[in-house]
Amino acid sequence: MAISAALVKELRDRTGLGMMECKRALAATDGNIEVAIEELRKSGQAKAAKKAGRTAAEGVVAAKIVNGGKAALMVEVNSETDFVARDAGFLAFTDSVLDKAEAENLTDIAKLKEELETSRQALVQKIGENIDVRRIVKLEGDVTGAYIHGNKRIAVLVSLEGGNEELAKDIAMHVAAVNPQVVNKEDMPAELVEKEKEIFTAQAQQSGKPAEIIEKMIVGRINKFLAENSLVEQPFVKNPDVKIGKLAADAGAKVLNFVRYEVGEGIEKEEVDFAAEVAAAAAGN
């Protein structure tokens, strides 16, 4: 029988599943929505979909050197709680995300999610939390390096022209600790520099100093801002007497790029009132 768009929409609203899953379920049950829901629940899809609406802001970041050291992959996979982020099954799933990305050369997050959806749903069923493969990045260069902080909440990739993997890893560790915004000061977005200039100007004008002095103050503060936030201008954390740019140059290398992931950055976390949640659960019994 023909499955109407309205029926598909109703099943989507009631299960939280995607349009195609709902359409297939309805087609398999001759448009009987109650039977379709029952079958989806049996297969676990409806349960997994319900959890998909919950915020997943914990989790881990993971990285892998590939292509003989000339490329590196990094992913963030999220869970709802830090407890699950330490679960062996969750960590194995995260490793499988990297393996899939490497094997099929996947850096499109939507495609990667599609390829892993069956195993993701199976994990959701097992652990009872929403799981999200949030983002992936690949860097390439003559040499690439990766650093993962011990708690797997921060990871960094670095690509170099020349140099070696040990140097790349050292610079990645520095990025993890200091969190620069760009490689070179020339890379800083003009709008960000202008915004900082506006702030510095307002601060300098409050000093009551002559205009020519204020201008020098602004220039000095902008230069300091650029130096503090540009990787190659920063003192190396393991040896503050040497800047990253010189560290690389002394090894016959040049920093091409870096990417730093921190678990949950940019995700708006839900504030949960535990007492209210318990009261609501009790009222529903």
Describe the structure.
The chain has 3 domains: 5-51, Ubiquitin-associated (UBA) domain (Helicase, Ruva Protein, domain 3); 58-184 and 240-262, Tetrahydropterin Synthase, Chain A (2-Layer Sandwich); 189-229, GTP Cyclohydrolase I, Chain A, domain 1 (Orthogonal Bundle), CATH 1.10.286. Strands 1-2-3 form a 3-stranded antiparallel beta sheet. The protein has a 3-stranded antiparallel beta sheet with strand order 4-5-8, covered by helices on one side. The chain is an alpha+beta fold and 285 residues long. The chain has 12 helices and 8 strands. The mean pLDDT is 87. Helix content is 51%, strand content 20%.
Q: How many discrete structural domains?
A: 3
Quickly give the structural class: alpha+beta
CATH-defined architecture of the largest domain? 2-Layer Sandwich
Helix content: 40-55%
Poorly predicted segments: none
Instruction: Supply Rg.
Output: 25 Å
Can you give the mean pLDDT? Answer: 87
What's the story with the biggest beta sheet?
A: 3 strands, antiparallel
The CATH fourth-level homologous superfamily of the largest domain: Elongation factor Ts, dimerisation domain
The general outline is elongated
Along the chain, the helix and strand elements come as HHHHEEHHHEEEHHHEEHEH
**Count of helical segments?**
12
Distance between the termini: 39 Å
Percentage of β-strand residues: 15-25%
The CATH topology of the largest domain is what?
A: Tetrahydropterin Synthase, Chain A
Query: What is the number of E strands?
Result: 8
Across the major sheet, the strand order is 1-2-3
CATH class of the largest domain: Alpha Beta
